[in-house]
């Protein structure tokens, strides 16, 4: 049975949805290519941070991480910042 998707911060600037830390790293590497990140650079997003409002670079409100996760059925890159 597949693990439910959780939000992970990968490195300092990227949030992905995945079933495990290994899968989270693989999602980012699929998008960005080979990185020097390891599973030690992947951390789950705390439960209390899932409902924090998210804004894009222009300051426009986006769905919360919890709302983004609810819309997904497979691992995916959610967002990042520079």
Task: Characterise this structure.
The chain is α+β, with helices and mostly antiparallel strands and 82 residues long. Helices cover 22% and strands 27% of the residues. The chain has two helices and six strands. The protein has helices at residues 21-32, 65-70, and strands at residues 6-10, 14-18, 42-44, 54-55, 61-62, 76-80. The strands form two sheets. The chain has a four-stranded antiparallel beta sheet. Strands 4-5 form a two-stranded antiparallel ribbon. A hairpin with a 3-residue loop joins β1 (6-10) and β2. The protein starts with 5 loop residues before the first strand and ends with a strand. The model has no long low-confidence stretch (mean pLDDT 91).
Q: Please state the average pLDDT score.
A: 91
The residue ranges in which pLDDT falls below 50 over 5 or more consecutive positions are none
- Main β-sheet description: 4 strands, antiparallel
Gap between N and C termini, in Å? 36 Å
- What is the strand arrangement across the widest sheet? 3-1-2-6
β-strand percent reads: 25-35%
Q: Using the alpha-carbon principal axes, give the shape.
A: globular
Helix content: 10-25%
Report the radius of gyration as a whole number of Å: 12 Å
> Which structural class matches the secondary elements?
alpha+beta
How many distinct beta strands? Answer: 6
H/I helix tally: 2
H/E series = EEHEEEHE
